[in-house]
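During the reporting period the student researcher (J.K.) took over the structure-prediction task from the postdoctoral fellow and processed the backlog of single-chain submissions. One of the processed entries is reproduced below for the supervisory committee.
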Amino acid sequence: MARVLGLDLGTASIGYSLRDTDKGTNITEQLVRFGSIIFQKGVGNSKTGEFSYAAERTKHRASRRLYQARRYRIWETLATLIEFGFCPLSIEDLDRWRVYDKARNLKRRYPVDAANFEQWVRLDFDGDGKSDYSSPYQLREELAIVQLDFSQEINRFKLGRALYHIAQRRGFKSSKGETLKEQEDAVKDDIANEMSLESVSLKKSEEKKSKDLASYMEENALHTVGCAFAQLEREGVRVRASKYQAVRSQYKEEIKYIFEFQNGLDIDGDFFKRIYSDRKDGCIFYKRPLRSQKGLVGKCTLEPAKSRCPISHPEFEKFRAFAFINNIQYRRATEDEWLNLTAEQKLKLYNDKFLQAKPSFSSKLFVSGLKKRLDYCKITICQKRREPLIIAIERMLLVVLFPEE
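J.K. obtained the following structure tokens:
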């Protein structure tokens, strides 16, 4: 009895058949068992074709990060408002909402039992069960045009509710072209410079987004974004998803205008600095720095415990330049032996050709300049073949030959 096993290996399946050659004269009679095993594919199928599960899983990562940053910003703003007496919520209820500790069995729970906080969110400041304003924009408009007595708790709660609304929607700010160094420099700026409206420079994307709202505010002589949105609501224009969009600098101007307009508020006080600042101690306009990419640098092949020098580092650029120069040889005639450059010639070549503002230079100019420096017009110059270890370290081109002129 002879049995033959046949396998068909596919990318996502295995087909098999088992034949018994003693059971007949044709394949149909000889087949004992056959079938296929289908595995789950590593990619998904949609109407547009296949897609990567990993890409689908991480596609919404940016949205998740934005939601996370928004929660942290709201919690920090509420903590500041509670500390200075502008919110009726207790710090214990806030901690039950923002603290998660699996070991202590603490789960985040919204303060549904805090009645005063619920009324505060619903714009019911007198406790009669009805909203005192049709929208937070009407409240923000009142703070910009009506003088209030902030020795009264109800007026402090009104200001806190307006600031809480701004923290929820603090506007767009472009980060295009920003680097870690630029963000660090912006954080180190003096707060007086941050508060000068003349020093605010909008990027093109911000100007495009806020152009319609800025024109509307100028035409109607409106001082703040809250006043503009309140008037748009009275005109029957839907504020959300409309062409009137505000950017972050306009929200900062509104807060500064309210604190300057209201006699009971101190623009030089700690409360304003905590609300307004872009620094780490600020709550509404603090922007988390860009994540460092230094962890993406691989390990050195010679010293695996240490990271490689990044290719953007000036030291690596200097290494590449000298690796190129050290492999240059020359000869005066075809029959002569190849000669290496002296240390003085290498340094002179490095200073003249590699230390310049241009991103690259022509090899012809390089060769002609080197010939003049060697004081011989018919010199043949080439770059000798490097050792495999050097090739592995610098990862440059294999062999560079300069044609004889």
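The committee noted the following: DSSP finds 17 helices and eight strands in the chain.
J.K. will present the remaining backlog at the next meeting.
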